[in-house]
Design goal:
single chain; alpha/beta; Rossmann fold; 7-stranded mixed β-sheet; 7 helices; 7 strands
Length: 218
């Protein structure tokens, strides 16, 4: 058995033994151990939540004082006192308002995005669609994520992945890139970690020094 096949079997077996819906749970676990994205008491919104592995991880971390909302087009067979699932399209115009209502009108502490399109087999098209989905989550975060909040976003690495990262740099104080051990080595997926949400979009000086200096000059 090849090393990568053994690794896949390891996380699949661990997920079964530890009661997680998917091996993807370990991607979020590793990210949280490294960057402490989610804490006890956090309010978390997970876009692309099916089948529910990330929701289970979040539910365990946030505890009774926190709350988790999972959003997906697919039904999620998962229940808990501190979580709720919504079967709705991320592009639905009402999704932001519905999530906000479920959160009781309070802002989220964390936004997660594990969205993927239905794979067509045409790489350029799949990459484009996945980037657009991630961009949609970022636009929703403008009204859902509190200042100082964190994010964790899957991206298909390709021509437009840098575009997403630049958008994150404009919105978060710190942005990191990681490929969790539970990700297949041959997979194009990467994850961006966003720490300390600035609030409304603001381009950092490092991206356009001249423009920023001009805008702030007396």
């Amino acid at each position: 058995m090849k090393l990568q096949e053994a690794r896949r079997d390891l996380y699949r077996r661990l997920a079964k033994e530890e009661g997680f819906k998917s091996r993807a749970a370990y991607k979020l676990i590793e990210a949280n151990e490294r960057y402490r994205i989610i804490s006890r008491g956090s309010r978390v919104v997970d876009f692309g939540a099916a089948p529910g592995g990330w929701l289970q991880v979040c539910s365990r971390i946030v505890g009774d004082s926190g709350f988790v909302v999972g959003v997906d087009l697919r039904e999620i067979s998962l229940k808990g006192k501190n979580l709720k699932t919504l079967r709705i399209d991320v592009y639905d115009e009402s999704v932001g308002g519905i999530v906000s209502k479920v959160l009781g009108g309070r802002a989220a502490d964390v936004i997660l995005s594990d969205l993927s399109p239905s794979v067509s087999g045409i790489w350029e098209l799949d990459h484009f669609k996945q980037v657009e989905m991630t961009q949609r989550v970022l636009s929703l975060a403008e009204t859902l994520l509190k200042k100082g909040g964190n994010g964790f976003f899957k991206i298909f690495e390709g021509e437009r992945s840098g575009e997403v990262k630049r958008g994150l740099i404009g919105r978060f104080e710190e942005v990191r890139t990681m490929k969790p051990r539970a990700s297949r080595r041959e997979s194009s997926e990467l994850f961006y970690v966003g720490l300390a949400w600035r609030g409304a979009f603001s381009r950092p000086a490092s991206l356009d020094t001249a423009e920023t200096a001009s805008a702030t000059a007396p």
